[in-house]
Design a protein that fits this description.
The radius of gyration is 18 Å and the shape is globular. Strand 7 and strand 8 form a beta hairpin. It has helices at 13-16, 21-28, and strands at residues 3-8, 29-30, 39-44, 50-54, 61-62, 78-84, 89-93, 96-100, 105-108, 115-117, 128-134, 142-144, 150-154, 163-169, 180-186, 192-193, 197-199, 203-210, 218-224, 227-233, 237-241, 248-251, 256-263, 272-274. Helices cover 4% and strands 43% of the residues. It contains two helices and 24 strands. It is mainly β. It starts with a strand and ends in a 6-residue tail after the last strand. The longest helix is centred in the N-terminal third of the chain and has 8 residues, at 21-28. The protein has a single domain, classed as Jelly Rolls, CATH 2.60.120. A seven-stranded mixed beta sheet has the order 1-3-4-11-6-9-12, with no helix packed on it. Strands 2-21-18-23-15-14-13 form a seven-stranded antiparallel beta sheet. Its EC number is 5.3.1.17. This is 4-deoxy-L-threo-5-hexosulose-uronate ketol-isomerase. One of its GO terms (biological process) is D-galacturonate catabolic process.
Length: 280
């Protein structure tokens, strides 16, 4: 079996205030999401979102169920979002072969029996990032190319936050039960993401940082707005963001990140913004 999962429990904000660096990283940072010829995942107790990565190099990798799910198939009671952050490759969904270029997304509905991640045909590095959330009904499998995304340009070079936001798997583009995913790219010379920062009590979020040189880092800011903390994050590492936490970052180099959300509200703009001067 090439699939491995761990569990992260929900943390009360009052408890997180007492954490040292090691404990903060243990609770919220996912450092080893991609392992060659393996599927790695973290089952979080925040809206029961699963954060996962598949790195097929020498063989196809099936998305397998695991004991915590208590289901024969991974998607018996779940929906799935996949974004390709590596070379162009394919995903097989119940026998249908779907090609995903770099940064393209795929939604897979509840009830799907088989999902298989394939290595790139030319042997190039292949990385599939995925999020999965509980679902209440089946929606059709749908591929979303970059030109099909709802795209927004925000920020400015003067404020070091010029960025392109591509809303790939959200309810204005593809029908989902609760899962939403998208991709934000910082433009050259810009390093700040998600500023002004915000929280959203009705859903949690996960960030995957990528396209970051191996010798560079992003400082991810988290915590309650009046009690912030930071995590230094490397390329292809992910952060679990509770509903009570801000989720913002600044890098030593421009980068991209994938945001994924689950919860009771599909309204992308449902958030409580916090001005930079009000953060502590």
């Amino acid at each position: 079996m090439s699939t491995s999962y761990s569990i992260r429990h929900a943390i009360h904000p009052n408890d997180s205030k007492t954490y040292d660096t090691a404990k903060l990283r243990e609770a919220f940072l996912i450092e080893d999401l991609f392992q060659k010829d393996a599927v790695q995942g973290v089952y979080t107790m925040y809206d029961r979102l699963i954060v996962g990565g598949a790195q097929p190099a020498n063989k196809p990798l099936p998305l397998e169920s695991f004991p915590t799910l208590r289901s024969e198939n991974f998607l018996d009671r779940r929906e799935l979002g996949i974004i390709n952050i590596g070379a162009e490759s394919t995903v097989t969904v119940d026998g249908e072969v779907i090609t995903l270029a770099n940064k393209e997304a795929l939604y897979v509905g509840m009830g799907t029996k088989e999902v298989i991640f394939h290595p790139a045909a030319n042997g190039a590095d292949t990385f599939f990032y995925f999020n999965s959330a509980p679902a209440h009904r089946n929606y059709p499998t749908k591929k979303v190319a970059l030109d099909q995304a709802e795209t927004v340009e925000m920020g400015s070079l003067e404020n070091s936050n010029h960025r392109i936001i591509r809303k790939l798997l959200i309810n204005s583009v593809v029908e989902t039960c609760q899962l939403q995913m998208g991709l934000t790219e910082l433009q050259q010379g810009s390093v700040w993401n998600t500023m002004p920062a915000h929280t959203h009590d009705r859903r949690m979020e996960a960030y995957l940082y990528f396209n970051l040189p191996e010798d560079q880092v992003v400082s991810h800011f988290m915590g309650e707005p009046q009690e912030t903390r930071h995590l230094f994050v490397k390329n292809r590492q992910a952060v679990i963001s509770p509903p009570w936490s801000i989720h913002s970052g600044a890098g030593t180099y421009n980068y991209a990140f994938i945001w994924g959300m689950a919860g009771e509200n599909l309204d992308y703009n449902d958030m409580d913004k916090v001005q930079p001067t009000d953060l502590k």
